[in-house]
Amino acid sequence: MKFMKLGSKPDTFESDDKFHKYAVSDLDSDVTVIVGEFTFYLHKFPLLSKSNRMQRLVSEASEENTNDITISDIPGGHKAFEICAKFCYGITVTLNAYNITAVRCAAEYLEMTEDVDRGNLIYKIEVFLNSGIFRSWKDSIIMLQTTKSLLPWSEDLKLVARCIDSVSAKILVNPETITWSYTHNRKLSGPDKIVERDENAIPKDWWVEDVCELEIDLFKKVLRAVKSSGRMNNGVISETLRYYVARWLPESIESEAASSNKHLVETVVSLLPRVNRAMSYSTCSFLLKLLKVSFLVGVDETVKEDLVDNVSLKLHEASVKDLLIHEVELVHRIVDRFVGDEKRVWEDDRYKEFVLGNGVLLSVGRLIDAYLASNRDLTLSSFVELSELIPEAARPIHDGLYKAIDTFLKEHPELTKSEKKRLCGLMDVRKLTSEASAHAAQNERLPLRVVVQVLYFEQLRANHSPVGSVAASSHSPIPPVKKAEESIVVVDEEAAKKVGLSKKSRGSKSTRSGGGAGGPQLMPSRSRRIFEKIWPGKGESNKSSEVSSGSSQSPQAKSSSSSSRRRRHSIS
Known about the structure:
- The protein is mainly alpha-helical.
- It has a domain at 1-157: Potassium Channel Kv1.1, Chain A, CATH 3.30.710.10.
- It has 28 helices and seven strands.
- The protein has helices at residues 44-48, 52-63, 77-89, 100-110, 121-131, 137-146, 153-156, 159-171, 208-211, 216-228, 234-248, 258-271, 284-297, 301-313, 320-324, 328-346, 351-356, 359-374, 380-389, 399-411, 417-424, 434-441, 448-463, 484-487, 493-498, 525-534, 538-547, 555-566; strands at 3-6, 13-17, 20-23, 31-35, 38-42, 68-71, 93-96.
- A five-stranded mixed β-sheet has the order 2-3-5-4-6, covered by helices on one side. It has a two-stranded antiparallel sheet with strand order 1-7.
- Strand 4 (31-35) and strand 5 (38-42) form a beta hairpin.
- Helix 12 (258-271) runs antiparallel to helix 13 (284-297).
- The chain starts with a strand and ends in a 6-residue tail after the last helix.
- The model is unreliable at 188-197, 349-357, 466-474, 479-523 and 536-572 (pLDDT under 50).
């Protein structure tokens, strides 16, 4: 830390108690200066030789036949006045980054200018600021911190602006040219790491910890100066905001601190880099936590909307854990914003080409399916509404959605038949992989019609049915080849009765146990019998396929299959 000594005389200021100080001299005190609770017994001549204001105050006191002068509004209070008074006496005083702002403001108040005495206090302070304080990184930060308590004097004297200029200019220099000391103790990894660092090189974010010690309004001014230059990486800006929130925002928000925390959150949000999805540097986890706090401290709606926009840009990076800290209504709002941003792409004629490479869209689809499976507080309506927000192209496979539906059915056994139908109507069984189909075929929580659909399309997959190009892979769904309303087979209650099926006949778990769904010979025995009752002849075809995969169906099977196809209609 840099410092400057002024004066050469020994300190002759003494006190007989905490609030009274004397300038020891052969001459008696002839002026009493009261500064707040402190009283100084001084001499007129040294004070008048350096201060225009003291000349006027002494003159006014003389007119009132008194030697008492009261100063109640001097910036820096009694400490700053004492340093100025000692300078007038030629007593040695030491100026540094901690006290120079107060002394500079007090000297301005006392009008200790060059027209009173050459080489006066204001001049000497300005020399020290330019040659010492503003050349030092740490001193500039410390001095900037002291300006807050001295407003508006420090602002009017442009001390705040000069400190910010000094700090921001040093932030923007090439890190390779830095020669001053700085604080950098953070250990970053994973999403918090900005760049790969050479242990011997100075990192791009060397300045973050020191700047984050500033009060929020000063921090905002520094960061805005840095951002306005256009020379700072947005990733470093975002990391600075994340670190500041971690440094100053408490884990739990108390009601009495809500106001200050509200200001902090609103300021941080206003400083977030405004970029598009491809160049958004703030992590989604950080943004979601900030959004959670914004509701707790009651920030303005415009700030919340701003955060929702930022979160929607990074939704594909979110985790289920991040989403679970929010109410489902807010999650719905975020997803809706994300979908709205993508809508213009979906309406493009080249949509399908876009989707093939759109990892963002697929990631959000998987995220919401996992969220639906994890949130135990969802109602049927909220489950359905959130699921329906996800576009079809975001779910090329419905395994995740099936898991979410199965979990909801397990958590809500009281659902009515119509509610189950509404829930299961979200799922396209043709988009289940063989593993999910095998599980669904034995799932007693699913409605009967859904089970039959699963069996039918799994049979198509296994037998390489000529109905479209059926995928035989156990990891791929059956690609749709017709409109949904023409392709999905629905077995209603009457059809079930005709083949002797009822809810009672689906009773025990043992009747549904069986092998995997890798081929027709692996279909669960109970499920196979159900299937054979609905489509006679398929069972024989399954058996013969073990010997020859090219065996043809019997006329009866063809007739039955043709009849079945005529009964197809939509599940909805």
